[in-house]
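User: Predict structure, ligand pyridoxal-5'-phosphate.
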Amino acid sequence: MKTIIEPFRIKSVEPIRQTTEAERAAILKQAGYNVFLIEAADILIDLLTDSGTSAMSTGQWAAMMRGDESYAGSESYYRLEKTVRHLTGFRHVIPTHQGRAAERILFSILCKPGLIVPNNSHFDTTRANIESTGAQAVDLPCAESADTQAKAPFKGNIDLEALDALLTREGSARVPLVMITVTNNTGGGQPVSLANLKQAHEISRRHGVPLYLDACRFAENAWFIREREAGYADWSPKQIAQKMFSLADGCTFSAKKDALANIGGLLCANDSRLAEQETNLLILTEGFPTYGGLAGRDLEAIAVGLEEVLDEDYLRYRIASTAYLGRHIADHGVPILEPPGGHAIYIDAARMLRHIPKHQFPGAALACALYRHAGIRGVEIGSVMFGAEARHELLRLAIPRRVYTQSHIDYVVEAILEVNERRNEIRGLEIIEQPRFLRHFSCRFQPVA
Ligand SMILES: *Cc1c(COP(=O)(O)O)cnc(C)c1O
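Assistant: Predicted complex:
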């Protein structure tokens, strides 16, 4: 059989509400044309993020009932620790309330002014947590990633020559760790190959610098390796994931992504002295080391999610359904960042809306047009978010895990193609109110006359 189906049936449903185009026009105006300011109840299909938006399984809900809420030594913690050790091989497993808490603890121990942390591409919270220590976050994306239209298989790779040159120039005294983000979220949800990870591991080792994974989408990355890299077609996703983790000295992880949970994170390490410093900080701001700011039931949901996410049927469906959206719009003339990523499709809004200049925010204008036309919410990743540093003007459509069916996605495809046909009617935006930091969350716009 060729048809790839959702590998689950639905036990509990959450109604979504239709609105009229006139209602949505009024809601948009009220929200200052910023989709972050629209109430979720007024959204029909929400593709704002894949973070914390997964549907949990019967297995996860059942496990939550046995959550052990003991302050110290919770059984739920030991179940999670066992799962994570088996998957990653890391000796020390520290739970945190989400990924950025793991980042803050790690970087506040290892970083200080004058130090440099290289990464294939830092996620925004990763960069912010490094920079808040006074250290510098440097992106070293591979050359293929510059062209949104190139269909290379591993556009998430780190630039190995640039990494070696940086480590040779700065040495281990100035580079406390190397990070690699799998998949590369900022770079379009693109995967990193095992060959690239192996070489990054060798280079880091040669310079005496530990290598960490930002492992948020480790399972999606493992699936891409199996599909695209020679020699792994017969490996299970878990074996590939274990291989990926074996090349690293530790990881940060957001359980809101590939642990299919609604909250949670992990900080893992092999270095016992470092882990002791980390747990000391954890107690100060997150909680006792066997709960780390989470309820026992959250630890259970994460432990079960980490097993479920490596299921082959799940991963096949997950990656195919994202590609389905991407192919169906791209093959009908909507420019996307190619090839489709694991968790999201990124529309190249600057290419689609050539009549809207960068300073009138084509990505945000497209977000408004798609909401007004069909009640769908995506997020601008471009000049509103990054100002003058934006490399591209994108609209990201992130797919929550196990939440929407194929007919929902067909509706999204139809809506985007209709908006594309009338793209010349879309007007740019100007900002009329903005805060000093992270303006994309709360600024207000008006359409350009
Ligand atoms: C989401 C994410 C984080 C941060 O995790 P939170 O749980 O949102 O704090 C870090 N890195 C990457 C690549 C992410 O996608």
